[in-house]
Specification:
Radius of gyration: 21 Å
Helix content: 40-55%
Strand order of the largest sheet: 2-4-5-7-6
Order of helices and strands: HHEHEEHEEHHEE
Number of helices: 6
CATH architecture of the largest domain: 2-Layer Sandwich
Structural class: alpha+beta
CATH topology of the largest domain: Heat Shock Protein 90
Shape: globular
Number of strands: 7
Strand content: 15-25%
Amino acid sequence: MMMQDKTGNEEREEKNTLAIVAHDIKAPLSAIVSILGIIEKGYVNDIDKVKELVSRASQKTKTIITMVDDILDYTLLADKSKMKREPVHLSQLLKDSISTMKPSAKNMNITFTYDRDAGRGKHVNGSYTFLLRAFNNIFTNAIKFNKKNGQITVNCWEDTDKGIITITVSDTGIGIPEDELDKVFHIFERGKYARKNINGSLGLGLALVKQIIEDHEGEIKLTSTVGVGTTITVTLPLLNLNEKNGGTNEL
């Protein structure tokens, strides 16, 4: 069976995407090669300076690993067969995601504020693994683009008439200019504020989140004010279950 030829626009988009990925990965790789060259040629004899250079090379390596992980995550989502559907307890999901992200937040002295009863006894039909990845990415952004001594606030409420549940994640970070809001969920898009403040991101985080949430028949929205912060709102359809042992996996 012959594969259908790609259109000119598809070919150009694919080439542009590959060029972006290659450029973003090449930069830290070039830095690593430069650092190792300085050490190899013996230009630095001071042991403390050598340690500093090795530390910088190690950080650049971690940056590349993060980029590759982003790419692998995005390609993984193309295979919907891996997205096993089951009742996902929202309280446990939020608890697990926040617990995972707290060490990173602590490094910047960022505090989480949330209702420990958020999502109590509520379920959605979906993949725990993929939804956890989505909220981890949301919290990662809320931490990375926050300010030191900042705050992340998580709220959750149910609309019984519509059969949906809404989760909001608000930060006190750098914010996003209004003219860039429509780009934040696009693959490989990073706003100028993000580029100034963070290295090592391919701009896949929110694109991954959007795809995961939409694959769960949900919606995601974002509002932001420069210098004040950003709020991400996720809405998911509720799964009706007869709770027999409620309260065993609460926040």
